[in-house]
Write a sequence for this structure.
C-alpha cells in the first residue's frame, strides 16, 4: 500500500504499522487524511497476510483532533459530509478484522482520542495525554466520543472528560482499563511491535472471533453473546488448527506425566 500523503503503512512480517504523517500539525486530521486512514484500514482488514496492526503518530503528537483551519472553513453540507466520512473511518478501525494496537506517542485529542477509543489495545509513553476538549468550542464529539468513552471508561469518568474538556495524562487511564500500560519513549514502538507479534502468531480465526465476541459483550445481550461464544468455540474446536493444537497439547501433557518431566 503506497501513495499516501498523510500517513505511511509499513509491513513488518505479519504486522502492519500505520503512522500518521502530519507532524508539523501534530497529525491533525484533515479530509485527505480521513480518507486515507479509511482506505488503509479497510485494505488491511482484508489482507490475509496481516495478523495485527499498530497505529501511531509521527513527532510529538498521536493525533491532535481535526485540522481546525479546514474544520472552520467548512460549509454546512461540507461539515455533514466530513462527519459521515468520519463514521466510516472509525468503523474501519473498530470493526477491523485485525486487532489494532494504538501506540500513543503524544497528544491524542478530540478525534485523536476517539480513534484511540476504537482500538483493541492501547499503550502510551509517559508524556502522552488524552482528552475530548470539544466543549471548549461549544461543541461535542462527533466521532463516537460520547458513546465509546462511556463504554470504556464509565459514565461519570466520561462526563468529566466531556463536560470539562480536560486533557489528562495517559497514566490516569490505566486504572480505568483504557490504557494497558505506560512505557518509556524509547520503548513505545518496540513494546507495541512485541504485543502485535504475540497476537499475530496465534491462529487468525480465533483472534478474529475473540475480537468480535468482546465487541458484542460491550453492548450486546449476554445470552446472545454466550451462545455466540459456544458456537464459535465449537467451530474452532472442529477446525484443522484447533484439532491439531489440542492433540499436540494432549500428547505433551501425557508425555510429561509418564516421564515426570517439568
Amino acid at each position: 500500500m503506497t501513495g499516501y500523503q498523510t500517513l505511511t503503512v509499513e509491513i513488518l512480517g505479519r504486522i502492519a504499522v500505520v503512522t500518521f504523517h502530519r507532524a508539523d500539525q501534530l497529525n491533525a486530521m484533515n479530509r485527505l487524511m480521513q480518507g486515507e486512514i479509511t482506505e488503509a484500514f479497510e485494505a488491511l482488514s482484508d489482507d490475509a497476510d496481516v495478523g495485527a496492526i499498530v497505529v501511531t503518530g509521527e513527532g510529538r503528537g498521536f493525533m491532535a483532533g481535526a485540522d481546525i483551519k479546514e474544520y472552520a472553513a467548512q460549509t454546512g453540507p461540507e461539515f455533514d459530509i466530513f462527519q459521515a466520512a468520519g463514521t466510516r473511518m472509525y468503523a474501519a478501525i473498530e470493526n477491523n478484522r485485525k486487532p489494532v494496537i494504538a501506540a500513543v506517542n503524544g497528544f491524542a485529542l478530540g478525534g485523536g482520542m476517539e480513534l484511540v477509543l476504537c482500538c483493541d489495545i492501547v499503550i502510551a509513553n509517559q508524556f502522552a495525554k488524552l482528552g475530548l476538549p470539544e466543549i471548549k468550542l461549544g461543541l461535542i464529539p462527533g466521532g463516537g466520543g460520547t458513546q465509546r468513552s462511556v463504554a470504556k471508561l464509565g459514565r461519570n469518568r466520561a462526563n468529566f472528560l466531556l463536560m470539562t474538556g480536560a486533557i489528562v495524562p495517559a497514566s490516569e487511564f490505566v486504572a480505568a482499563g483504557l490504557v494497558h500500560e505506560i512505557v518509556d519513549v524509547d520503548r513505545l514502538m518496540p513494546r507495541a511491535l512485541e504485543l502485535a507479534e504475540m497476537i499475530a502468531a496465534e491462529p487468525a480465526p480465533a483472534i478474529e472471533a475473540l475480537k468480535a465476541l468482546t465487541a458484542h459483550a460491550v453492548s450486546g445481550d449476554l445470552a446472545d453473546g454466550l451462545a455466540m461464544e459456544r458456537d464459535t468455540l465449537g467451530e474452532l474446536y472442529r477446525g484443522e488448527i484447533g484439532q491439531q493444537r489440542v492433540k499436540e497439547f494432549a500428547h505433551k501433557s501425557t508425555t510429561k506425566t509418564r516421564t515426570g518431566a517439568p
Summary: The first strand starts at residue 7 and ends at 12. The mean pLDDT is 93. The chain has two domains: 7-200, 204-259. The chain is about 50% helix and 15% strand.
